[in-house]
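Data card: per-record layout.
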Amino acid sequence: MNRHDPKPQAQQTGPASRPTREEAEEAVRTLLRWAGDDPAREGLRDTPKRVTKAYGEWFRGYDEDPEEMLQRTFEEVEGYDEMVVLRDIRFESFCEHHMAPIIGKAHVGYIPTDRVVGISKLARVVNAYSKRLQVQEKMNAQIAQTLMDILKPQGVAVVLEGEHHCMSTRGVHKPGVSMVTSTMLGCFREDRTTRKEFLNIIGNPVNRAS
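The structure for this 210-residue chain is written out next.
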């Protein structure tokens, strides 16, 4: 299905219908003219097509359902009930305030009750939420709460480290600065020892940021 064909979605947060690709390309031409350039010149002639194609990739999370990704689980785990951690998951997102990139990595952990999920699904959930216009704090909470709601584990921990280009390439111009956010649910919130074990496994970015 064409990305720009409207379709009903439980996860979609925008309007029910989208502009056509032609309307999106015309909007890019308008921005190029506003920036002071000529969209008709040779180097920019195909830019509107390239930009809309890139947007289709950067914001594909609006067409993905993170909850559906977690539906297939495995119960044959021989009673395993210790921590499962996937760390250093690279993510690329865009802040909803300036539409500037947020580049970073996610660390995701949970303690299962009676089932586990394939580890690639954890990375897919991170991708689904990151490929939307985002605020890092909100994305952090969305990832953690989705895992908690669907897997129903003993607890979930999610830490995000992100460099915000709206801060590094404009405004205060401070490159190399990372923002660290965390969401701890269930036993990770209630048990200090469990939380500390998770932070030690991922290299404790919370301490490094303080």
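Known properties of this structure: The chain has nine helices and seven strands. The two ends are 46 Å apart (CA to CA).

See the next section for split statistics.
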